[in-house]
Design goal:
The complex is a heteropentamer, with one copy of chain A, two copies of chain B and two copies of chain C.
Chain A (H helix, E strand, L loop, with lengths): L2 H4 L6 E6 L6 H8 L2 H4 L3 E6 L3 H10 L4 E5 H9 L4 E8 L8 E5 L15 E4 L4 H12 L8 E4 L3 H9 L5 E5 L2 H7 L3 E5 L10 E6 H6 L1 H20 L5 H7 L23 H13 L9 H4 L13
Parallel strand pairs in A: 1-2, 1-3, 6-7, 6-8
Antiparallel strand pairs in A: 3-10, 4-10, 5-8, 5-9
Chain B lengths: L2 H26 L7 H46 L1 H14 L8 H8 L3 H25 L3 H8 L5 H36 L7 H10 L3 H29 L5
Chain C lengths: L1 E12 L2 E13 L4 E5 L6 H9 L6 E6 L2 E2 L7 E4 L11 H11 L4 H14 L15 H13 L5 E5 L7 H18 L2 E5 L3 H7 L2 E5 L6 E6 L12 H15 L1
Parallel strand pairs in C: 3-8, 3-9, 6-7, 7-8
Antiparallel strand pairs in C: 1-2, 1-4, 4-5, 9-10
The chains are: A alpha/beta, B mainly alpha, C alpha/beta.
The structure holds adenosine-5'-triphosphate (ATP) (2 copies) and magnesium ion (2 copies).
């Protein structure tokens, strides 16, 4: 094409950090289908293997935004990186984004009450611990009464659980399903409770929001488009899902892709619950207000905005 | 030792290693450590893809090793022959070397982003220190007689470095390269698991995340093989560069 | 001309002080041959190092041709007691080192060294490394290196000690000839009384450690043809022997 | 260099480092790299807790370094003096060394638990290879003359090892310990961040996860300080063990 | 008694072959003193190494007291051309090394070494390291080490080359005395014709490289008092000189 048409302006390019898990699948579908280009966007999806490295990259300005959670967002702000949530991508309902607390194979644990004093593998000061605390409370157990062991990386937590070195561990899907398939017992499951504990959010650096508002808006539209593509024809993206969401071979025939809701803003009370937990954990001196964490202007007003 | 015997010895010990691995895998019977067979199958299954990752990894290791040698060797020689430089440099090295490289990750990312640059910087920083320490210690040990004798021929500082200090330290520098090559590959693994989707480190971690231990160990095998080949190349360099030691 | 005034030298190792030379005063006119002799450990090597600028006097000063010696001079050649050959250079490269350091062309090096090595009986050994030579061969390489330089001052520390009697006498004659031709100021350390008397126009006898001047003999006939068989020669040998015995 | 000067030099270069850090922190202006002031405040704030973690880390590093030395040094000396052993061992080392040990940590932890065992095993495995390679290369370089001379006194194999081979390699073994100490601390960090709630690695990562960069860098400072102190101890060992090199 | 039958030796370096000795046949009765003399590089040191069992003949065989020499014997002491002192041991420890290796008690070592070191003029240097000695002092330490052992066979490679004339003559006499007392079979390499004739009951003259036997002179009066001043002494000196010149 001519130089004028091929030159994608700086404002239209976005760098997005994400961990290749099922939460982010619509982005990969959009990439595969060329939806970004069609929308006149230049989006680079940068894969990370740990939330820690992803957040460091955002902090250093190497990426414009990332798919994260509310705890990470608040901590980034606390650490001096101005970021804001622009939309929820997963976890609009409790059924989305499954986390489960599992007991190791062969352990004599069948009810939450038996977890008292046992070792529970989590990732400290993250959404994982928040979910763990929430689940334990739901199960009627004081989170302080279990022995938390920090195992930040999920695959390692899985291996230690299966190897019997942890009595229990909190795992997201598909690892939770895999552990269950290998003999671990699900004690608590966040899709089976009434509270909505885990939300996946799309966040951007504030300067990116300021400079690239149209691009981010388009991105959200593309995301919505990809989500509906998946909903309409899940089997067409099966292979891509197995690959991009890193579904273990044992589960490839049984594990189903989750539902993806269209972009929307997180609920006030969910954000507040996270803030209260963080203050109680002394991760924050004072809770952030909803407006400090969320930028309400980017989600398409036609969307499911509550 | 004749060349033929060497090859036999190499093959023998590789077989021995596989044997140990097999026994260990059987013994502990944990999916995290699969039998060699599974790894070899993984190798066959993923070969073309693995080769692509291998290419990136080799590139990163070799470039950072070369850069580290280029900078650390002269500095080490200098510090080894100059007490004042050393007592300024040593505490810096001793303080910086143990600093966990994650601490440097933000700096690396700000300066170089998340591409090859940052990965190679992290590798570079680790082995720079190793080569610096070894070279400095080697330069310190050079007998004064040798230096005196060449100085008495009227050699200036520069000639002394080129004619005496550098060749005297060459064997130790090669040893340092051996040690650093291993470290470089370890750090490579770590830096490739941070971000991006290329390199053997990524491949291995990807296998771990998918709980596909066959793929994971195929990656580990490839990494080990890459190490072995690079080591053999280093031996070749030594043979060529140090003819007086044959 | 070499002028040594009030020179003392003390080694310091780890706090312990060893006085090696005390209050040495000497004048060696340009083109003259001076021989240092004295009991083992009396500081001959130390004095040579001082003359070469490889050590700095603890007290006193040394001037060569009027200029104070503080570091190795280009026009001074030295043969060290332990030869000072570089293990990583072949015989040829070792012998050519001084020339190479002076920026001499390949061809010029060849012109100078080939006859020199032949005269020293080293032809055919050019490609060997020092570790592959006998003691005497190493010593001759060191001699070749020093003589190749066409210096104005030549310092030698027991340069013929590892050579057989005949080679030795031949080289003594060569040395006399070269000194005459090139008007070379020579300082030679030896333990051999006959050698001292044959070569030294000035014979400096040192006391046992710490070395002081015991006597300085004038021996003007040194190096003249048939001096070895003359009456004076034998008389001077006896005098040196007596001085050493006292 | 006198002891006093050394201390001044050390302090000077530490100040210089802090200066660089400060400038860098200002320059890149990223919360991930706070100013030194914040780290020092964090140090004061967390001291008693840090001391507890420090204790665990020191214990893990020192024990694994000691174990690695104890096993790798004899094996390295043996391989260095025995071609057959070496050509069996070398390929194993060259294959195993590049295997990313961190990838094996989960397996090690499944075997040995989340406590000290697995962490120390991985540290041990990394530095074992480094020490083995350096020691072997050092043992190879021992001049035959020295061995011959002691053999001629009737020394058996064992005596040769104790009297010649070990002391000849000691300086290189100390260099290897220096390099390995740094590697050990790096691996320590990694292994402490994989699982468990103790050690400086845990503390640093905890700070990172809390976005409490003051605490994080207080941990890093403590780790660097631990490294420096262990390095100074190594220097002390060298001073005591190698009196002939003073 | 030493019996050398048809011994040849060829050095092999990197494929290049250097013939050092060819077809040597010798018989040295027990208690006799044999002197090897010949041009530099003719293989004297090589022959001594062969006698010591430090090298293995390419052809032929060597027997001492009827037993074939294949490795160093406990009852053979050797003084190497480059002294073979261990840089990391003090003078005392170096001198005591042979005794220590034979499991001699501390006290016994002291009884033997103290007078020996005093006789060699080394008193007061016990705590020094070899690097802190003069050339002649190093050589005397090597002599002390060899003589301390009370061997039945003594092999010496130019043992007095770095010593002054008077010390040298004193030691020659000491050697004669010790040989007589202990009925020591002695093989000595020297370049000094007078020394050869004074010490050698059997004088072996070798040809230039590759060394073959040129002549074996019987010299029964060697070592007798005043032999130095006798007519026979001078006649034998001339004969050796002629043999060397041919
Ligand atoms: N590095 C050193 N440290 C301490 N003392 C030393 C050192 N080098 C030499 N000496 C001492 O200084 C004195 C003079 O040594 P030097 O080497 O000059 O003697 P020399 O006359 O050359 O003896 P030789 O004839 O044996 O070679 C000796 O007594 C020796 O022990
Ligand atoms: N390692 C080696 N490799 C090859 N050639 C060697 C080696 N060592 C010695 N030679 C050669 O073997 C010959 C005999 O050496 P040797 O050291 O026995 O001589 P030597 O009679 O002791 O001489 P010198 O009187 O000079 O000490 C020499 O020509 C020497 O060049
Ligand atoms: Mg000397
Ligand atoms: Mg010899």
């Amino acid at each position: 094409g001519s130089p004028a048409s091929s030159g994608s302006s700086q404002e239209e390019s976005l760098k997005l950090g994400l961990i290749p898990v099922e939460d982010n699948f619509p982005f990969f579908v959009a990439e595969k289908e060329g939806l970004f280009t069609k929308a006149g966007l230049k989006v680079e999806l940068v894969p990370f293997n740990s939330a820690r490295d992803r957040d460091l990259a955002l902090q250093s300005g190497s990426i414009d935004g990332e798919v994260a959670d509310i705890v990470a967002t608040a901590l980034l702000r606390k650490g001096g990186t101005p970021v804001k949530i622009v939309s929820l991508t997963m976890g609009a309902t409790p059924a989305e984004g499954r986390f489960a607390l599992l007991a190791r194979p062969g352990a004599d644990i069948s009810s939450p009450g038996q977890l008292k004093g046992r070792t529970v593998g989590i990732s400290e000061n993250t959404i994982i611990e928040y979910v763990a605390d929430g689940l334990l409370r739901e199960g009627g157990v004081d989170p302080g009464s279990v022995q938390k062991v920090a195992v930040p990386q999920i695959p390692e937590r899985l291996q230690l659980l299966l190897g019997g070195k942890l009595d229990a561990a909190l795992l997201p899907d598909p690892f939770a399903s895999l552990a269950a398939r290998k003999g671990a017992r699900v004690i608590l499951d966040d899709t089976k409770i009434n509270r909505n504990l885990s939300q996946v959010v799309l966040i951007f650096r504030e300067e990116a929001i300021k400079q690239k508002t149209p691009a981010i808006k388009k991105l959200l539209q593309v995301y919505a488009g990809a989500a509906s593509l998946i909903a309409r024809n899940p089997s067409a993206y099966r292979e891509l899902f197995i690959e991009k969401a890193r579904i273990p071979a044992e589960l490839r025939d049984t594990y189903l892709a989750p539902q993806y809701s269209p972009p929307q803003l997180p609920r006030q009370e969910e954000v507040a619950a996270v803030m209260d937990w963080m203050v109680a954990k002394k991760l924050l001196a004072a809770p952030y207000k909803y407006e400090e964490l969320v930028d309400p202007d980017l989600v398409n007003p036609g969307g499911n905005n509550r | 030792m004749p060349f033929k015997h060497k090859i036999v010895a190499y093959l023998g010990s590789i077989l021995f290693l596989f044997g140990c691995w097999w026994l260990l895998a059987r013994g502990i019977n944990n999916p995290g450590l699969p039998e060699p067979r599974l790894a070899l199958q993984g190798l066959a299954r993923f070969w073309p893809e693995l080769a692509r990752h291998l290419y990136f990894s080799v590139y990163r290791v070799v470039v950072s090793l070369a850069l580290a040698l280029l900078l650390a060797v002269p500095l080490g020689l200098w510090a080894g022959r100059n007490r004042a430089v050393d007592s300024f440099l040593a505490p810096m090295v001793y303080l910086l070397y143990p600093v966990p490289k994650v601490a440097l990750l933000p700096v690396a990312m700000v300066l170089l982003g998340i591409g090859d640059g940052a990965k190679m910087l992290i590798i570079f920083l680790v082995i720079f220190n190793q080569i610096l320490i070894t070279t400095r210690d080697a330069a310190r040990k050079i007998p004064d007689q040798l230096l005196l004798s060449v100085a008495s021929l009227g050699a200036g500082k520069a000639s002394l470095f080129r004619q005496v200090i550098l060749p005297a330290c060459l064997p130790d520098i090669i040893t340092a390269s051996r040690v650093s090559l291993g470290s470089a590959i370890s750090v490579l693994f770590l830096s490739e698991t941070i971000a991006g989707n290329s390199g053997l480190g990524y491949f291995i971690l990807d296998g771990l995340f998918r709980a596909d231990y066959g793929a994971m160990f195929a990656g580990i095998l490839t990494m080990a093989g890459m190490g072995l080949v690079l080591y053999i190349l280093l031996h070749l360099f030594e043979y060529l560069l140090c003819p007086w030691e044959r | 001309m070499i002028r040594v005034t009030g020179v003392s030298y003390t080694y310091i190792n780890n706090g312990a002080r060893v006085s090696a030379l005390e209050d040495i005063n000497l004048t060696i006119p340009a083109g003259q041959a001076c021989v240092l002799i004295g009991p083992s450990g009396c500081g001959k090597t130390t004095l040579l190092y001082l003359l070469a600028g490889l050590l700095k006097p603890t007290r006193g000063e040394i001037r060569i041709n009027g200029a104070r010696v503080t570091r190795p001079r280009r026009q001074t050649a030295i043969i060290l007691q332990d030869y000072g050959l570089l293990p990583w250079k072949t015989v040829w490269k070792n012998a050519a080192l001084g020339l190479a350091l002076r920026g001499c062309s390949r061809q010029r090096q060849q012109e100078i060294l080939e006859p020199l090595l032949a005269a020293l009986g080293l032809s055919g050994l050019e490609k060997r490394y020092p570790a592959q030579l006998s003691g005497g061969q190493k010593q001759r390489v060191a001699i070749a290196r020093a003589l190749s330089l066409e210096p104005d001052t030549l310092l030698m520390d027991e340069p013929f000690s590892a050579l057989d009697a005949l080679t030795r006498e031949g080289l003594q004659q060569t040395l006399v000839d070269i000194r005459r031709q090139r008007c070379l100021t020579t300082v030679l350390v030896t333990h051999n009384i006959e050698e001292a008397v044959f070569l030294g126009q000035q014979i400096v006898v040192l006391t046992a450690a710490p070395g002081r001047l015991k006597a300085v003999l004038e021996n003007p006939e040194a190096g003249t043809p048939d001096y070895r068989f003359s009456e004076t020669f034998h008389r001077n040998c006896s005098r040196v022997r007596q001085l050493l015995q006292k």
